[in-house]
Each structure stands twice: as C-alpha cells, then as structure tokens.
Amino acid sequence: MSTPATASPPTDARAEEHEALRVWLRLLTCTNLVEAQLRTRLRTSFESTLPRFDLMAQLDRHPEGLKMSELSRLLMVTGGNVTGLTDKLAEEGLVERRDDPRDRRSFTVMLTPEGKRQFGAMAHEHEQWVVGLFAGLDHAEKRQMLKLLDRLKVHLSTISD
Amino acid sequence: MSTPATASPPTDARAEEHEALRVWLRLLTCTNLVEAQLRTRLRTSFESTLPRFDLMAQLDRHPEGLKMSELSRLLMVTGGNVTGLTDKLAEEGLVERRDDPRDRRSFTVMLTPEGKRQFGAMAHEHEQWVVGLFAGLDHAEKRQMLKLLDRLKVHLSTISD
DNA sequence: TCGAATTTATTCATGAGTAAAGTATTTTCA
DNA sequence: TGAAAATACTTTACTCATGAATAAATTCGA
C-alpha cells in the first residue's frame, strides 16, 4: 500500500520476485510432468528407464564408442553412476566394454548389434511421444519457447562458471 | 530442399518432430541447471536439500497441517518417500506428527516453531536465488515464458488424466 | 629414468526416488 | 452386524544420483 519514499527501483521489487518464482515453479512442473510421462512409457513399452535411454543415445550418436569419462561428461553425471549403468547394460548384452590398446586404464564402450536394434526402436517411439507431449504449443509458440529457453540457458551458464 | 509433391501437411513433419525434441531438451537443460544451483546453495548455506525444502514449503503454506497423503499429492512423489523425509525432519525437530482425533489411521504433519523459523530464513534466501537465476529474462520475457508454460501445462494435464 | 602428479575407472556410503506388498483402521452395505 | 472394500501409512527391495576414497596406468619434470 504505502509506496516507499526512496526513489530507486522503477518496478515493484516484490512483484518481480514473485514472478521469477512463478516462472521457476511452472518450469519445474512442466519438466516433471513430461519426465514422468517419458519414464512411464519407457518402462511399460520397453522395460527400460530414462538414464539407460540417455546413455544408449550417446553411444548411438558415437558409433566409434566412448570412454567412461566421456560418457560421464556428456551425460553430466558422475563416473560412479556411469559405471553402474554400464554394468547393467553390459549384463543384458546391450553394450560392450572393449579394451583400448593404447591405454590399459581405459576402454571404449559401444552398443552391441542387439543394443543398436533396441535403441532404434526406443528412439523412434520416444520422438513420437515428445511430439505428442508438446502438441499443446503450435509451431510459433515452440519457436518462441526455444528462444526464451536459450536466453535463460545463456544466462545460467554465466552463473555456473 | 525438395518440397514433397504430396499436398497434405503444410509443415514438414520431420522438422516439427525435431523442434519438439529441441524444446524438450532445452527445457530439461534449463531445469537441471537451476536445480543444480539451488541444491548446491541450499546445501552450503543451510545444510539442507531441495526435497526437504519443498516439503517444509508446503507445510509453511498450510499452517493447519497436512496429511501424509496430501503431502504426497502436493509434492508429486510417492508416499514412501514422504514417510522417509518426514521421519528425518521429525528427528531433527523441524516438523511434528500430530494424531488426528477423527481418524486413527492418519495424522497431520506441521512445522514446529523451530521448523517455521528455519524455513523462513531459507525461503527468503531461496527467493533471492531464483530472482538471480532468472535475471537473464526481462519482465516481458518472464510473462511470455509463463504464458507458454501454462499452455503446455494445460495440455500435459489432459494427457496425464 | 625415477618419482610425483594426473588420469581413468571402480567401490562404498548416503540420499532420494519408485513400485509393490503389508498392516491397521475406517467405511460400506447386504 | 459383520465381511468386504477402501483408505492411510509403512516397509522392503530396487534404481539412480552424488562425493569421497581407492587402485591402476600413464605422463611429465627434474
């Protein structure tokens, strides 16, 4: 009610704060809803999970294979995590650890033929799911959203160092 | 380059798919970056975590207390998860389980005075952090983002049932 | 070339999430 | 009334993530 006598901010700082918070909560809600859908569908359709899908996606994109450290960096998760995921995928015969002749500390991980086949099927479905989940936005809106998210991402990158 | 001779879709379906996927990946990246920042700051500044903060935020918003099932619904996590979080917060004297005289199966969970005090301090800082993290968008852009996310959320709700 | 520092991957402890099964208490209704 | 269904929460077993500690191989500098 009482406008402070101090001249400084042109906009109501409290309202601004509230707005940032509202955007953040919506962002979080939408992400969680989409993720939940993808997780559920991946599980019911393929008996798989998002982390496994993401790991296989990276291997699919790099047919020459990747080192554990590279997977860790690309997936933005810790090495221990990659070890566990890779162990299970290897048990199931979907990926393969192949010795690196140049460096006995490391090896390259790659999809097996069966892994390739299975990932191909999942990726195709996955893309259709995402299209459906974002069908609430038309072409222009998706472009707008992309632009705004890009700006946000750039700003966030300046913060994270 | 080559426009298909088929008359039907006004836009290239393959490009559309790619666009939905791009929006989704940006959305995910931004959410993860913001979450990582908030997690880190909550831990270093308050020795706490996001799930704990979220649970306490719901209790702060509902001073009359909430049932476990209500917390589960509001936080969009399973009951077992809420049990674990509540157990720890109760051990630390930040929340309290109070018997419901009307239904001995359930009880209401509420913040203790110490919990209120501690949450108040965290919430204040948290809001400043969010404002800073979203400072890459100006007022109009935040409003635009909010509008787009609302549309998306509505669409997603029709899917989840 | 030897030893120190770095890199690569694994293991372990911990925290947070899920699904499914279990327990206890109410509610419903034939 | 009392057996079946529904509800509220916990427990258990599992997945996935982190960070710290470890082990092994490589690299680099003196």
From TrEMBL, chains A, B:
| Highest taxon above the source species | Bacteria
InterPro entries per record: HTH_MarR-typ, MarR/SlyA-like, Tscrpt_reg_MarR-type_CS, WH-like_DNA-bd_sf, WH_DNA-bd_sf
The molecular function GO annotations come to: DNA binding; DNA-binding transcription factor activity
A GO BP term, please? response to stress
Q: Which SMART domains match?
A: HTH_MARR
Q: Supply the PROSITE patterns for this chain.
A: HTH_MARR_1, HTH_MARR_2
Q: Which Pfam families match?
A: MarR
Which keywords does this Swiss-Prot/TrEMBL entry list? Answer: DNA-binding, Transcription, Transcription regulation
Signal as a keyword?
Answer: no
Task: Identify the residues that the record assigns to the HTH marR-type domain, covering every copy.
Answer: 17-154
Protein name as annotated: Putative regulator protein
Instruction: Identify the species of origin.
Output: Aromatoleum evansii (Azoarcus evansii)
